[in-house]
Design a protein that fits this description.
CATH class of the largest domain in chain B: Alpha Beta
Shape of chain A: rod-shaped
CATH topology of the largest domain in chain B: H-NOX domain
Strand order of the largest sheet of chain B: 1-2-4-3
Helix content of chain B: 40-55%
Distance between the termini of chain B: 36 Å
Distance between the termini of chain A: 126 Å
Number of domains of chain B: 2
Structural class of chain A: alpha+beta
CATH class of the largest domain in chain A: Alpha Beta
CATH architecture of the largest domain in chain B: Alpha-Beta Complex
Strand order of the largest sheet of chain A: 2-1-5-4-3
Radius of gyration of chain B: 16 Å
Number of strands of chain B: 4
Largest sheet of chain A: 5 strands, antiparallel
CATH superfamily of the largest domain in chain B: H-NOX domain
Order of helices and strands of chain A: HEEHHHEEEHHHEHHEEHEEHEEH
CATH architecture of the largest domain in chain A: 2-Layer Sandwich
Helix content of chain A: 40-55%
Oligomer: heterodimer
Order of helices and strands of chain B: HHHHHEEHEE
Shape of chain B: globular
Chain lengths: ~450, ~180
C-alpha cells in the first residue's frame, strides 16, 4: 500500500499522529539544513584560513629552502636510521655529489668517523651542542678536515637529524701557518740570541788570539836568533865542551822540534782565527738590507761553520769561480740557504750509508749572464721522482721525526725566489744523488731558470 | 549530547517496540526540541533522560535496563557506521583501550563542542582489565551496554563487576575475560 492510498479524516487520531510526525520530520529537516549551512560556512572559512596558512607555509618553506641552499655551510638532513633525506647546495659542492646520488645514502659515506646509526639515535635523544672536529669524505674518496654541529628536529611525524658541516681546510692551514710563524719567530729569536752570544765570544776571543799569534811569531823569530847565538858560541868555546853542555840539554832535538811546534801552533791559531771570523760574519750579517756580497766568501763561511754537520759522513769539495761577480744580497739569509742545503746533503749521504766510504758534497759557483749560480751536489739517496714537486712545500719532509720539520727547503725557496728574486731547481737521481742549483740576479733582471740554464 | 544518540535511540524504540511508542514517548516527555532530532545537531542531554523515563513508564522496563539495551544496540550501529575505528583491533579489550586515546580524539576533531565522558583503562593482565567511567551525566548503564555490545561483537565471554561512586558520576568496571 502506498502513502497515496492512505485516506484519513481530520478528526482521526492517526491523522493527528501522522501530522505531528510530519511536523517533527520537517523541523528536523530544517534543523539539518540550518546545521548544514552553518557547517558549510564554517568549512568555507576553515578552508580560507587553511589556504592562508598553506600559502604562508609555502612562502616560509621557500624562504627556508633559499636560506638553507645559500648558507655558507653544508647541511645534510638525515633520517634517524642515518640515511640522507636531503642535502643543500654547499653540501653537494663540498662532497662532490648530486641530490639523487646523495639521497638514501648513509651519512657515514660523507662523515666516516661520526655518522653511524647508533650514534644518530643518541643524537635524536640528546643532540650535542658543541661542534666536533672530524673528517669529511668527498665522492672521489678524498678527505678534508671538517667541523660538525648536530641538531634533531622535534617533529615526531618526521624525526630528522640535521648535520651542519664546515670545511676547515683553510682554517687548519691558517692555523698551521700561524704555528709555523710562531715557531719561526721563536727560532729566529733563539738564533739571534745565539748569534749575539757567538758574536760576543768571537769578539772576546779575537784579541787574545791576535796577541797569541804575535807572541808565537815572536817566539819563532826569537828561537831562530837563539839558534844563531848557540852556533856563534860553538866557535868561541871548545867544540867538545860545547857539545857536552848542549848534549846535556838535548839541543839537537829541541832545534829540530821547536820550529815544528811553533809552525803547528801558527797553523792552529790561523784556523782558530778563521773560525772566529766566520762566526762573526755568520752571527752578524750586518743589516737586513741587501749589500754587495761575495757569494764565494759566504759559502766558505758557511762550510766552515757547518763542518761538524758533514765531516763525519762526507768530504766536501769547493769549486768556486774566481771571476764571480758580487751579488746584491742579504748575507745572513744566504748563510741560511747554504746551511740548509749542506745539512740536507749530509743527511742524504747519511741515509744512504757510508759503508762503502765517505760521501761527497760538491759546492760550485759560476757566473752566468745576469746572475751568479751556485749548485750543491751530494752523493746521497736521491729524491723519488713523485716527490720532487713537493720538496719545497711547507712541512713536507721525508726525514724522521725530530730530524726535519719540512721547513728548511721551504725557507730556502722563499729566500731565493721571494727575497732575492732568484730561481731554484732540483735535479736528482734515485740512489745516485741530488743537485740543488740556485741563481741570484746580479742586475735588475731575474736570472734564467738554473735547470734550463745549465 | 550529539543528535545521533537521540536519533539512534528513537530508531531502536521504533524497531524494538513500535513507531507509535516512539511518538508516545516524545509526546509524553514534553521536549524543548519537540523530538525533531537530526544526527549532526546537539541537544540537551536531559532530553535523553526524559525519553528513557517515558519509555520505561510505557514499556514497564526499568530505565537502567533500557539504557544498557540501548548501549548494546548503539555499539552495533557504531560498528556499522565507523568501521575505521575497528581496523586492526582483534578483541574487546583492545577496542576498549582505544576509546580514550583514539575514538574520542577523532570524535573531538569532528565535533569540537562534544562533551565526552572519560574512559580510563588499566590492564591487569591480558584477560583482566579495569575500566573507569567518569561523566557528570551519570550514564554508567549506557556505558555498560556499550561494553557488553563490544563483548558480543567479538564473541567473548567477559565477567563484569561494577561499583558506582559519586552518585554514578564515577563507575568502575572490573572485567575478566573467560575462554569461550
Amino acid at each position: 500500500m502506498s502513502t497515496s492510498d492512505i485516506k484519513l479524516e481530520a478528526g482521526d487520531p492517526k491523522h493527528a499522529r501522522l501530522t505531528a510526525r510530519a511536523e517533527r520530520e520537517r523541523l528536523a529537516r530544517k534543523e539539518a539544513e540550518r546545521l548544514l549551512d552553518e557547517k558549510s560556512r564554517e568549512l568555507y572559512q576553515a578552508n580560507q584560513a587553511l589556504e592562508a596558512v598553506h600559502s604562508a607555509e609555502k612562502k616560509a618553506a621557500a624562504q627556508l629552502r633559499a636560506i638553507l641552499e645559500n648558507l655558507p655551510i653544508a647541511v645534510l638532513i638525515a633520517r634517524p636510521d642515518g640515511t640522507v633525506r636531503w642535502i643543500n647546495e654547499p653540501a653537494r659542492g663540498l662532497f662532490g655529489t648530486t641530490p639523487n646520488l646523495a639521497r638514501d645514502r648513509e651519512v657515514s659515506a660523507f662523515l666516516p668517523h661520526l655518522a653511524d646509526a647508533e650514534r644518530a639515535e643518541a643524537i635524536m635523544s640528546a643532540p650535542p651542542s658543541d661542534p666536533s672536529a672530524t673528517v669529511g669524505r668527498r665522492s672521489d674518496g678524498s678527505e678534508f678536515p671538517a667541523e660538525v654541529s648536530l641538531t634533531a628536529t622535534e617533529d615526531p611525524s618526521e624525526p630528522s637529524v640535521i648535520w651542519m658541516v664546515r670545511d676547515v681546510t683553510h682554517r687548519t692551514l691558517q692555523e698551521q701557518r700561524r704555528l709555523k710563524l710562531e715557531d719561526d719567530l721563536r727560532r729566529a729569536q733563539r738564533l739571534e740570541s745565539l748569534g749575539t752570544m757567538a758574536g760576543g765570544i768571537a769578539h772576546e776571543l779575537n784579541t787574545p788570539i791576535q796577541f797569541i799569534i804575535d807572541n808565537t811569531n815572536f817566539l819563532g823569530d826569537a828561537f831562530k836568533d837563539m839558534a844563531g847565538a848557540i852556533d856563534a858560541l860553538k866557535t868561541e868555546v871548545s867544540p867538545d865542551k860545547c857539545d857536552e853542555i848542549l848534549g846535556q840539554f838535548d839541543l839537537a832535538y829541541l832545534t829540530e822540534e821547536i820550529p815544528n811546534a811553533i809552525e803547528q801552533s801558527r797553523e792552529g791559531l790561523k784556523r782558530v782565527a778563521e773560525i772566529v771570523l766566520a762566526i762573526k760574519r755568520f752571527s752578524h750579517p750586518a743589516t737586513a738590507a741587501k749589500e754587495d756580497n761575495d757569494l764565494n766568501q759566504i759559502i766558505q763561511t758557511t762550510v766552515l761553520v757547518s763542518k761538524n754537520q758533514w765531516k763525519y759522513v762526507s768530504e766536501l769539495d769547493l769549486e768556486l769561480a774566481t771571476d764571480l761577480p758580487r751579488v746584491k744580497s742579504n748575507a745572513g739569509e744566504l748563510n741560511q740557504v747554504l746551511l740548509n742545503l749542506i745539512v740536507n746533503a749530509a743527511h742524504a749521504i747519511e741515509d744512504k750509508g757510508t759503508a762503502s766510504g765517505m760521501g761527497k758534497i760538491r759546492i760550485a759557483t759560476r757566473a752566468v749572464p745576469g746572475a751568479v749560480e751556485c749548485s750543491v751536489s751530494d752523493s746521497g739517496v736521491g729524491i723519488k721522482p713523485e716527490l720532487r714537486d713537493k720538496i719545497f712545500d711547507l712541512f713536507f719532509t721525508t726525514k724522521a721525526p725530530g730530524r726535519g720539520t719540512g721547513q728548511g727547503l721551504a725557507l730556502v725557496h722563499s729566500i731565493v725566489t721571494q727575497s732575492h728574486g732568484g730561481r731554484i731547481a732540483v735535479d736528482s737521481e734515485l740512489g745516485k744523488g741530488t743537485t740543488l742549483t740556485f741563481a741570484l740576479p746580479t742586475g735588475g733582471d731575474a736570472p734564467a731558470n738554473p735547470a734550463e740554464g745549465g | 549530547m550529539k543528535g545521533v544518540v537521540f536519533t539512534e535511540f528513537l530508531d531502536m524504540v521504533e524497531s524494538k517496540f513500535s513507531t507509535d511508542m516512539a511518538d508516545d514517548i516524545i509526546d509524553a516527555a514534553d521536549l524543548p526540541s519537540k523530538g525533531a532530532y537530526t544526527a549532526v545537531g546537539t541537544y540537551p542531554h536531559a532530553e535523553m533522560g526524559k525519553l528513557v523515563v517515558a519509555l520505561s513508564k510505557r514499556s514497564g522496563v526499568k530505565a537502567p535496563d533500557l539504557l544498557k539495551a540501548y548501549g548494546e544496540y548503539l555499539f552495533g550501529r557504531f560498528h556499522a557506521g565507523y568501521p575505521v575505528f575497528f581496523e586492526g583491533v582483534t578483541d574487546s579489550f583492545g577496542f576498549l583501550k582505544r576509546i580514550e586515546g583514539v575514538v574520542h580524539v577523532e570524535v573531538g576533531k569532528l565535533y569540537p563542542d562534544a562533551e565526552l565522558p572519560s574512559f580510563e583503562t588499566l590492564e591487569i593482565s591480558p584477560d583482566r582489565l579495569h575500566m573507569t567511567y567518569r561523566s557528570p551525566r551519570c550514564l554508567g548503564d549506557f556505558a555498560q551496554g556499550l561494553m557488553t555490545g563490544c563483548f558480543a561483537h567479538y564473541r567473548e565471554t567477559v565477567a563484569l563487576k561494577r561499583s558506582d561512586e559519586h552518585e554514578g558520576k564515577v563507575v568502575k568496571f572490573e572485567l575478566t575475560r573467560h575462554a569461550a
